[in-house]
Amino acid sequence: MRATDQAADERFMGLALRLARRGWGQVWPSVAVGCVLVKDGAIIAQGWTQPSGRPHAEIHALTQAGAAARGATAYVTLEPCAHHGRAGPCCDALVDAGTPAPSLRWKTRTRALPARASLACARAVFRSISG
Q: Whose CA, among 3, 75, 94, 128, lies 20 to 30 Å from 69?
């Protein structure tokens, strides 16, 4: 990774972290998450988990971006969810929108959920490229 790439990654992740703070204390039972969608070095959408936890940050950003999300990098402060709850998995939504899972960047402190979500995102990517 070039230094300029790392600086850009840090800047976009920093913005995602600031966006996540907007949801602090308002998103229970979900977690406050921020998401920034970047394409060709420019921010095309940003989102954060909305009050009461819906929509999640990724869906909030994808809705803003629409078709422009295809090929974008998603900077997400917590690994996208892989479970079916009140809404479908965010990792599936990102893949369906054309944001490839390998381009996701996230920060997380938990170790149990990431393995499950990473596997789900990888499976979603495999399904999308294998038809």
A: 3
